[in-house]
Amino acid sequence: MLLDLAEKAIRLAMNLGVEYADVRAEQVHSTSIRLTNDRFEQAVSGTDQGLGVRALYKGAWGFSSTSSLDIKDIQAVVKATFKMAKATSKGVKEKAKIRSVKPVKDHVKVKTHQPLNEIGIDKKMKQVLGFSKTTRDYSPKIVSANLMYEDSAGQKAIASSDGATILTNIGRVYVAINAVAKEAQKLTSTRERLGKIGGFELFNEVNGDEIMKKAAKRAVDLLKAKPAPSGRFTVVADPRLAGVFAHEAVGHACEADSIIARESILAGKIGKVVGSKLVSILDDSTVVGGWGSLKYDDEGVATKKRVLIERGVLKGYITNKEAAAKLKMNPNGGARAENFSYPPIVRMSNTYIARGDHSFKELLEDVDHGVYLKASRGGQVDTAKGTFQFNAEEAYSIDKGEITTPLLDVSLSGITLETLHNIDAVGNDFELHMGFCGKGQTVPVGDASPHIRIRNALVGGRA
Amino acid sequence: MLSLLEYAVKKAEKQGASQAEAYFNGADRLRTSIEKKQVKISEKKTDAGIGIRVAVKKTGGYSIGFAYLTNLTKKAADDGVKQALKVASFKKPDPDFKSFQEHRPAKTVKKIYDKRVAKIEPEKIVDLAADLVKAAATDKRITTIGGMLGLGTVKTAIVNSLGVSGEFERTGYGAFGYAVAQEKGSVGVGGDSFTDCFFNEEDAFTVFKNARDLSIRQLNPKTVKTQKMDLLLQPEALAFLLAFTLIPEVRADNIQKRQSPFVGKIGQMVASENLTVIDDGSIPQATGSKPFDDEGCPTQTTAIINKGRLQSFLYNSYTAKKDNVTSTGNAARTLGAFTEKPKYAVEPIIGPTNFQLCAGKKAAEDKFDDVVSEVKNGIIAKEVIGAHTANAASGEFSVVLDTAFKVEKGEIAYPVKQAMLGGNILDALKNVTLFADDLKQVGLEQTLISPTILIKDVIVSG
Prior knowledge:
The complex is a heterodimer of chains A (463) and B (462). With 463 residues, chain A is of the alpha+beta class. Helix content of chain A is 23%, strand content 42%. Chain A has helices spanning 2-15, 71-89, 121-137, 202-205, 208-222, 239-251, 256-260, 321-327, 360-365, 416-422, and strands at residues 20-36, 39-57, 60-66, 105-108, 142-160, 165-183, 186-197, 226-227, 231-237, 281-284, 305-310, 313-314, 335-336, 345-346, 350-353, 369-382, 387-399, 402-408, 411-415, 423-426, 431-438, 442-449, 452-460. In chain A, strands 1, 2, 3, 4, 5, 6 and 7 form a seven-stranded mixed beta sheet that branches. A six-stranded mixed beta sheet of chain A has the order 12-11-10-15-22-21, covered by helices on one side. Chain A starts with a helix and ends with a strand. Chain B is α+β, with helices and mostly antiparallel strands and 462 residues long. Chain B folds into two domains: 2-217, PmbA/TldD superfamily (PmbA/TldD fold); 227-461, no CATH class. Chain B has helices at residues 2-14, 74-90, 122-136, 201-217, 235-243, 246-249, 252-256, 317-322, 368-373, 425-430; strands at residues 19-35, 38-58, 61-69, 142-160, 165-183, 186-196, 227-233, 275-280, 301-306, 309-310, 331-332, 349-350, 354-359, 377-385, 396-408, 411-415, 419-424, 432-435, 440-442, 447-450, 453-461. The longest helix of chain B has 17 residues, at 74-90. Chain B is globular and about 70 Å long. Classes of the chains: A alpha+beta (463), B alpha+beta (462). At the A-B interface, strand 1, strand 2, strand 3, helix 2 and helix 3 of A face strand 2, strand 3, helix 2, helix 3 and strand 4 of B.
């Protein structure tokens, strides 16, 4: 039924004379639970439904969406899209074009033993309550355990005027824990996540309680941390922080929309050396088990593995149909929308730094005086200036090749291109992590990396 | 809409709820985006839904359940009621829950609805956007102009078992612009924004011209040495920083959960005597104003910090009853700052309306130039990056100062490349000394109203 509605909307749009249109129609049941110290702050389920139409008319884009799946409202939304595109066309100087791909017809299923919409919200609440107890029981110093559970299950139809008709089953579940520890007047806080594309079987496959204990342990250990110094140091970044760097500093700068807008320091640099030979960075939507994995993007294009930087040389960008036409490249499946109520834009999927050949011990060996940074509380980047900043969750001094004093509230900032050149060692380990990326719309992404070492990095502390 | 809400409340009562509440939020939004010096896309979105809350009496208290629907039919409402009751049946009774919001006489808030907004044609906005680009592109160093213009009409309605029944409409208008300037290998970025309940073209032009000027002024920046200096924070920087520090820290729910550095500090001096902080949901034409909050409690003026002394927290009905006070009308259906989820899909917690920073003891603001002239060695920042990484429980934060300029001998001297500010919000509040006269509201819905403020003696690392 969703696919019928989507195809119908495409036909209606084409009848109005648009050059191109794509549609997403969704019906998704989702559950959202927030638990703080065994108290349910939120325990909500509901069905989100709706349809969004994007169309190109005279080289100009229009978009409209509705939370109704009634045929009358869909007709109205197609008309509104046309009206929006027509209005836009009055202000467009450089006309947008799209590069089409071979049409795809497919039904993508989600592998799951326990579909999320068949599990009652009470069972989900019980699972979260159990995680809270595990976290709080770890130590009397844990003063707070904040848990978040989110799932969604349903279907999404994608149709485009250049021939894509794809029905995708949706099944996605994750839990995030924020553990807070306290001693004297000192408070520390850590985060961990677990999740999968699939169903409720996640909780049989992954030992969630161990992950809760890990968060609690790190929060308690952080209580011993001291304020950090500020200045330039050699930094060893763990896979989580290095993964965030790959995503924030490099991935965003490789999004073709920012390349075209010349808001990226990597614009016009294909084939040029942008970093140390040790650095290869990829964005790969096909990673098995990747939180950012998807078979087709929201323009109905089959996704793939994209090499962004290979041994220090910039190789490619993440593109959608419009950027591909403009840059004379191929669409590589980088168009994603948060849901039906947003037009698809260029996004990452799973972004990672490829494995190197240093052991962790070797990474530390040459560091006389440095900082070991672990995990991230998030980060931001200015792709036009090529600057970034992230706050590490954990940090330690490195003295004469050994990890020593734990440090509190340390941030890493820098200039992306300098930093890429200053990476002088890449580890032989590798970890895949889940995250969310905001760019006006929030989408699930994966990031990954080995440990990396950065010389002469700017570290901000409070000491 | 009230009739479907009444239906849902009655249905829930019949199915075993002691009390029920149904909340409707429906929005129509028009938006035109600018990218690369031209209009990129125009969008129109319609979204509406109902959130249903039930309270079920058990031994030891009430259990609360919640569910939402976007298919606005009686049948979907029946299912929503069933789901909400299922959640309530699982939850342990909460001895602190007494009841939903009681009926209180509603008041009206002036100038929150601009009847022109719903009628403005997209062509008019596209034309305006094209003119804004022209106005910002007057300097040949400007390589990129981007931004957006947005208009929205939001209807809110609420009904509960205690006699609350009301609805209102509000409009919002926002303009955001940024520019990138390039000159001899140097890149400067500048941005500005404006929000109001009323549509107005003139302020959009100011936004884009400011973005242009700032991006040019940001060219050829220098680094600063790590040192103690004075800090001038402009309203945009404050809005982002406070959204993740002071604002969550004065929410009564976070206080009751003991996740705030302000726990137990009512009546104490927590800030400089020059600082007064007020939340006021009734300011005419302010974007955070509304006649009643997201539980149907009339909004009010609440003094949070008065001349440095902590006076009150922000309450919804639940936290107010727990502390034996009355709600301050700050129930907000939000998951926190900058997380977007439709309001009908979220249970009410607490949020600001118009969160205002005002001069305290000194009572009056000073001219902007006079405030700058007070600074012998300092930095002025329009934006901060990374405030969402702050630790609201402890008050610690670490941010990058963006669109920043060095201030020397009372004058803005040169643009600053990359500077970091770390510290605790408590220390920062104690060092607030002066307020400029450049009052601005930032945000739509949860709004900060503040001028540029001077914070003495902070450590800025270069």
